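**Sequence with structure:**
===
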Amino acid sequence: MIKILEKYFDIFCTIGSQKTYQKGEFIYLQNDSADYLYLILSGRVRVYTLSSSGRETTLEILEKGRIFGESSFLSDHVRPTSVAAVTEVRLATCLVSDLIPLLRETPELMVLLFQHLSETCNHLSRQIYRLTNYDSRKRIASFLLEETASPNRDKGILDNVLPYTHAEIAETLGLNRVTVSRVLSAFANQGLLKSHYGKIMITDRNGLYQILKNGAYL
C-alpha cells in the first residue's frame, strides 16, 4: 500500500492545518462540499457510502500516511463518500490549490500522490468486482487474503491477524453479520482461520485461495 512518507508530513501541516477527531466523530459526510484534501498523521478512519435506505457500506479503512478526500481535486464537486474516525485520529488538511505549487517543486511527492490515487482506484475496482462476482464465501475469503497480504502496523494487521469484528467485515462486504459469522465459523471448522471477538487469525492461506479458485473446503 502506497503511503506518504513521514518526511513530507510537515509540508501538508505547513500549507494547511492540523485537527484531531475522536473515535466515531465524522470528518465529512456524503454530499458535503469537497474543499479539502486530508493526510492521516496518526490513527485510522473509515470511508463508507450511505444508501437512501440508510445502509452503510464500508469501502476502506485508512491508516497513517494515507490520503483521502481526493474529490477536492475537482472544482465545485461534492463528497461521494462519508468518512469517520475509527480511533482518535490526527489529520493534516489542506487546499489542493495550495498543494499543487509544492508538488511541482517536489517530484517524489508528486509521484507518491499519483501512485496513491491510482492504488485507490485499483482498490475500488477490486471491491466492485468482489461485490458483483463473488458469493458470500468468496467475498470473505478474498477480503481476508487481501487485507492480510502484508503486515501493516498502523492498521493493526500483524502475523496474519486482522483486527476486525464480524460486523465490520459485514459492513465492508455488503453482507449481514449473521452470514459473515456463519461463513467464518465454517472456515474455522476447516482449519482455515481462528476467530475471536475483534480478531481473525488466518492459519491456512492456501485453503482460502482454493475457495476463490473452485470453492473447495466447504
Q: What stands out?
A: The chain has a mean pLDDT of 89.
